[in-house]
Amino acid sequence: MTAKRTLDLTGGVTLLALLSPLVVAVALSVALGSATPGRGVLRRRTVAGLNGRPFTMLTFRTKSPLAALPLLLHVVTGRMSLVGPCPLAPAHRECAGDGRRRLSVRPGLTGPWQISGRSELPWEERELLDLHYVDHHWLGMDLTILARTLPAVRRRRAARFA
After folding, report:
1. Beta carbons within 10 angstroms of residue 107's beta carbon
2. d(Cα 30, Cα 91) in Å, to the nearest integer?
3. CA spacing 20 to 30 A to 26: which of 32, 39, 67, 120?
4. Contact 86, 107 (CB under 8 A)
5. Can you point out the beta strands (E) in 30-88?
6. How many CB atoms sit inside 10 A of residue 11's CB?
C-alpha cells in the first residue's frame, strides 16, 4: 500500500468516525426538508475514476459544503482520494486527449482547484491546476492541500454571508 493510499484510508476512516453524527444529521435534514417525497437524500452522478473507470459518486442533495460528506465513503473504498483532480463525467472533454492523463490518479475530495478559488477560477485555470497536480503530486503536497482546504471553504462561506 502506498503512503498516499494509507493517508486516504486512515484519514477517510477517521473523518467518517468523527463526522458520523453530522452525516446522520444532514441525511435527516435533507430527508425531512425535501419538497419531493421519495426522491432520496443522495444525488448520484457518474464520474471517471482511476484509469477512466466510471463509478457512481454520491453526494447529499444540499447546496452546502456538507453535501460532500458521502464522498468519504468513496475515499475509504478506494474510488477517490482525499486529494486529487476534480471529479468529472467520463464524457467530459478533459478526460480525452492530453487531459486523459488526469485519469492516472484517483479524483479527489479536494485539490488545488478547491484551495485556489474553485468557482471563481476560469475553467482553463482549474484544468491546469489539475494537470499540474497529476504531474507533480507527492505526499507533502497532499498534506499542504488538506491543511489549506478547511480555511478556504470557511473563507468562501464567510464571503457569501458578508
Report:
1. 25
2. 29
3. 120
4. yes
5. 42-48, 54-60, 81-83
6. 19
CA distances from 129 to 85, 96, 112, 143 (A): 8, 17, 6, 16
d(CA 152, CA 162): 15
Rg (CA), the chain: 16
Q: Output the pTM of the full model.
A: 0.88
Question: pLDDT digits over 105-158, tens only?
Answer: 999 999 998 888 766 778 788 888 999 999 999 999 999 999 999 888 777 655
Are residues 82 and 58 in contact, defined by beta-carbon separation less than 8 angstroms?
Answer: no
3-state DSSP helix/strand/coil % of the chain, to nearest 5: 60, 10, 25
C-alpha cell, 126:
482549474
d(CA 138, CA 116): 18
How would you label 67-90 residue by residue, b for 16+ Cβ within 10 Å and e otherwise? bbbbbbebbbeebbbbbbbbbbee
Q: Which set of grid coordinates corresponds to residue 24?
A: 446522520
Measuring CA to CA, how many Å separate 106 from each of 19, 46, 74, 119, 127? Answer: 23, 14, 10, 21, 15
